[in-house]
Amino acid sequence: MAPFISSISPTSGHSGQTMTITGTGLGSLSTTKVNIGTKTVTPTAASSTSVTLTLPSGCSGQANVIATVSGVNSNSAAFFYIAAPTVTAVTPSTGPAAPGAVDVFGTGFATATSVAFGTVGTAAPTVLSDGHLTVTPPPHGAFTGCTDAADVLVSNTGGTSSPIGAQGQFTYYERPAVTGVTPGTGPAGTTGVIVAGTCFVDVSSVTFTLTTGGPSTPADNVSVTGVGSLTLDVPGTLAAGTYDIQVINPGGTSTAVVADQFVVV
Fold first, then answer.
1. I need a labelling partner for 138 at 20 to 30 A (CA). Which of 20, 69, 233, 255 fits?
2. What is the pLDDT of residues 42-66, one digit of tens each?
3. Which pLDDT does position 15 carry in this prediction?
4. DSSP β-ladder status, 159-160 and 147-156
């Protein structure tokens, strides 16, 4: 009796997956080979009604599956190889510990099931097209430094994308903190004020805000001298009062605390 394939499972996927062929007259381990496209595979298990094998690499698109028992070929069943996705860009590529949604660009996203952000965690994507998806990165836990660059890896039914370096990463930033201001008092226009703190990395601005509320005024001549230090000039337009000096970077705005206050006299 010639071998006959009644079904294969799965019917689509990628190399390395286990395939099970069900049918009749499928032979045994000593008599059965399976051809998948141009590849010949030795099963890991075989009986007259079931054959198990590992899908080979080097195939793409549709590949016919044929069982050969003692030189006799079965009918064919179609298997579709799905390529692993690729990531080419992430926008925005930086953000705070609890980011908003980001756009990921690449290929093979039509069947995307999850997106991993390094070791931080995974998130479910919203697929917009085969080359574009949006996803909200999982929140970052405690930082061991001021930043954490996470490879953005997309998984689909064909596998998982490979890291490509900086352009395929999302960098989490710890929120800066201000721990001291020297001097803490002076007239509007005071120059060379030293602000101490933590995570002054990629600082975008530093502001003065009255502790009683109101609009923020950007500091003048900000110069970051280290991860924990910067200098600035007090804006000459500030009225007398007590101000919080707050530092802003991709991780957010430093929390207003007593230690960040400067009194304009």
1. 255
2. 999 999 999 999 999 878 789 999 9
3. 86
4. antiparallel
Measure the CA–CA gap between 131 and 133, rounded to whole angstroms. Answer: 7
For the segment 170-202, what is each residue's pLDDT rounded down to a tens digit?
A: 999 999 999 999 999 999 999 999 999 999 999
Spatial CA neighbour of 176 closest among 219, 206, 138: 206
Give the predicted TM-score (pTM) of the model. Answer: 0.81
61-103 pLDDT per residue, tens: 899 999 999 999 999 999 999 888 999 999 999 999 999 999 9
Q: How many whole angstroms separate alpha carbon 197 and alpha carbon 194?
A: 10
152 with 231: CB under 8 angstroms? Answer: no
The full set of domains in the chain, from first to last, is 4-81 (2.60.40.10), 86-173 (2.60.40.10), 177-264 (2.60.40.10)
Q: Are 195 and 245 in contact (CB under 8 A)?
A: yes
Q: How many CA atoms lie within 13 A of 145 on its CB side?
A: 7
- The secondary structure of residue 238, as a DSSP letter, is P
